Amino acid sequence: MIELVGLTKRYGEKVAVDGLTFSVRPGIVTGFLGPNGAGKSTTMRMILGLDRPTAGDVRIDGRHYDQLKDPLTYIGALLDAKAVHGGRSAYHHLLCLAQSNGIPDRRVAEVLDTVGLTAVAKKKAKGFSYGMGQRLGIAAALLGDPQILMFDEPVNGLDPEGIHWIRNLMKSLAAQGRTVFVSSHLMSEMALTADHLVVIGQGRLLADTSMAGFIRQNSRSYVRIRSPQRERLVDVLHEAGITVVEAGGGTLEVEGGKAERIGELAARYGVVLHELSPQQASLEEAFMQLTAESVEYHAHAGPMEVPQDWGAGWKGA
Amino acid sequence: MSTHQPPMPQAPAAAPDWQAAPGGTYSGYSSPIPIVRTHLGHALASEWTKIKSVRSTMWTLGVFILLVVGIGLLAGVAVRSSSSDLSGQNPLSLGFFGLLLGNMCIITLGVLTTASEYGTGMIRTTMTACPSRGRVLAAKAIVFFALAFVVTLAAASFVAMIQASLLEGHGARTPSTGEWLKGTVGVSLYVALLGLLSLLVGSIIRHSAGAITIMIAAVLAPLVIAMFMFASSMEKIRQVLFEYSIPNQMSVFYANSLSDSGPSGWDPLWIMLGVTAAAFAGAYALLQSRDV
After folding, report:
1. Assigned domain for B21 exists
2. Which residues form the ABC transporter domain (chain A) (predicted)?
């Protein structure tokens, strides 16, 4: 169990993490979601005692990180794959970590086997690919067989096989009753792995909900309709008691999954349809809407958006 | 979607309370690995593994031994083959030149022990594994100091013995026990302390190249600056810079200092000890207050 209470980190004027309060519970995968620069890594660094909070508190099973005497057997973390001395072999990297926590040396071989790095155990870490570095970081996190695991963007830069492996690993770790806390900026990734969801934007808590609840709330299903006889269709649907909403681009939208009914009505009344398609708003869209105001670095690609009433003042004149 | 449901434990024995009390007494996963209350010894073992598993240690110490032994032997042979007499000088003093150059290697290794962890990002892993920052610094300091002292002592003693036997009967006097002690143990402690100071500067600066530059400047600059202080009004400063420059303080261990005033006997060791202790306090305070 990781508990954050009003956790805040300021760098000069800039607030990186702003009064975060939530808990990470055992036995499930908790996804920590937010756009780039939302403060996910800073939060994780504060949990691990690497950064000192400006205000607030974070405890692991009621204790501060630096009160843990053998932290690796308590909480394993993959912060970034690059936190390794490139001149040291994978084996020695893990060995020095094991020794510092009094973990038996045999665990080094075990975790190397778990992540599939046994063949390159004696090779220098700087020769590792990104995926191998990520696996070495995960091996370090698993070294103490801890009850809490924390991964910062573990699937970043991995190939599909590696992503699949990490997803299954996280699920099986949680299934063993461990606490798994994983950050990502990809909603689709979270939807596949997380049971619980914590969303932050610009350091502030935006949502703290179960994944199922989030999906229920945010995945709107509707039917999109295009027809050359719009008015007639609207009348027909209205009479049948179906609410129609005008969407942009000459299309109509009907909430819920009523595509069959609409098709039958259109056929009965001889209305021509150009499109009748059931739609599902993606979780990615829901996430983007949730974090839209808090995205730190907006891209300005493509043509500039022109406000609809642009030039209205002089055009009319 | 299967992810809606919390996954069921695969091994019910590992989490017997899951169904009964999901939020309350649920204890989660418990590992078969024995829980150990760690202490400085664990950190020492870890740092020892670290220092011996990188190539820079082998390189710097290898070059160090090469310089100390090589230059020491060359000096001995050169003096022996020259016609002039040593006229009762301490033969151990010929070891000075090798150690003076060898210092650079010890400084480099000292700085790399701390600063390279910042350069590579390893420090985040280290501090996560051992959240007691003071313990990490102490373990690094002890392991490095012990290694630097043992290697320097071995190299310096070897050179001293060779020189004493090479120059026997060439007018060099037989060194006293005190001179032996200062020329081997004393100067080795001094060199190892200088390395430890570099380690601490590396921890403060957090940048390898920067810290090495600072340390080499600290060793050479006072002497070089003093050399160009011609004005008589600067005579006093010039004298102090000479006497307290690190090369001159090292030569005190062989009793062939540049001047008769200034530090003598074991003074240089106490001075270096004081400076290093102050640097340790500074490095420790910064380590506690700064984010990793």
Report:
1. no
2. 2-227
Query: Which residue range(s) make up the domain with B225?
Result: 40-289
Asked if A41 contacts A113 with a C-beta cutoff of 8 angstroms, the reply is no
Mark which residues 117-156 of B lie under 8 Å from A by CB: 117, 120-132
Burial (CB count within 10 angstroms: exposed 0-12, middle 13-18, buried 19+), residue A317: exposed
User: If you count them, how many residues does chain B have?
Assistant: 292
Q: Is A7 exposed, middle or buried (0-12, 13-18, 19+ CB in 10 A)?
A: buried
B87: left (phi > 0), else alpha (psi -120 to 50), else beta?
left
- Whether residue A100 and residue B55 make contact (CB cut-off 8 A), yes or no, is no
CATH classification code of A220-281 = 3.30.70.790
With an 8 Å Cβ cutoff, are B38 and A102 in contact?
yes
- Of the candidates B114, B102, B129, which has an alpha carbon nearest to the alpha carbon of residue B54? B114
Interface contact flag, A97 B46, Cβ < 8 Å: yes
| Beta carbons within 8 Å of A77's beta carbon, 6+ residues apart | A44, A48, A141, A149, A150, A151, A152, B128
* Chain B environment of A26 (Cβ under 8 Å): 26, 28-29
Q: Which residues are A240's β-sheet partners?
A: none
pTM of the entire predicted model = 0.84
